[in-house]
Amino acid sequence: MKHRKLKNSELDRINPEEYKASEKTPLIIILDNIRSLNNIGSVFRTADAFLVKKIYLCGITAKPPHKDIQKTALGATDSVDWEYAENVMEVISKLQSEGVFIASIEQAELAVHLNDFSVQKEMTYAVIFGNEVKGVQQKIVTASDAVIEIPQFGTKHSLNISVSVGVVTWDIFVKLKSLKG
User: Fold this and answer.
1) How confident is the model at residue 90 (pLDDT cuts 50, 70, 90)?
2) How many CB atoms lie within 10 A of CB 84?
3) I need a labelling partner for 50 at 20 to 30 A (CA). Which of 22, 96, 123, 163 fits?
């Protein structure tokens, strides 16, 4: 039997109203000072795909509606819950006071490799991604409960932010789903 590519109409996806009503993955994405509108839109699509609880857009990170965000988000800004907050440190403090585990995605001393990062039942996680050039600010790294590094083995020093969000979100999504057993 040969594989047949499915049509979009055969994918049985939920609509934005069903998405809003569905049980979310206990995962929050925080974008701090992201320059690229296309990267922001890509993050919304990834968040939609894995039922992410919320996205915080902080600092200079642009917010919907914007045509360049919409171009890559393809409507995910209507389904995924998001909020703009100028001060990322206030968002971190608020979430930590609510018991959310904060993890910066960065290359740092004592960072845990993503494949070695363990999740726990009944815990909500927030992952922070920083500026495309400068990364996550040191004050954010210091305030985080953990720093997670995506292991890389080639010559480049980093991945594109939208790729990093996809890798980390998928990994944590799978680990959280395995706990539901």
Assistant:
1) very high
2) 13
3) 96
Report how far residue 148's alpha carbon sits from residue 121's, in angstroms, rounded to the nearest whole number.
19
Instruction: Check residues 148 and 180 and name the one with the higher pLDDT.
Output: 148
Residue 83 has pLDDT above 70, yes or no: yes
Q: Which pLDDT score is estimated for 181?
A: 64
**Could you tell me the CA-to-CA distances from 76 to 93, 107, 142, 176, 181 in Å, in that order?**
27, 29, 32, 22, 28
Decide: 97 and 68 in contact? Cβ < 8 Å: no
Q: Do the beta carbons of residue 76 and residue 165 sit within 8 Å?
A: no
- Neighbour tally for 93: CB within 10 Å: 13
Which class is 21-150+159-180 in CATH?
Answer: alpha beta
What DSSP assignment string belongs to 102-146?
EEEES--TTPEEGGG----TT--EEEEE-BTTTBS-HHHHHHSSE
**Three-state secondary-structure class, residue 52:** strand
Residue 5: which H helix or E strand, with range?
Answer: none
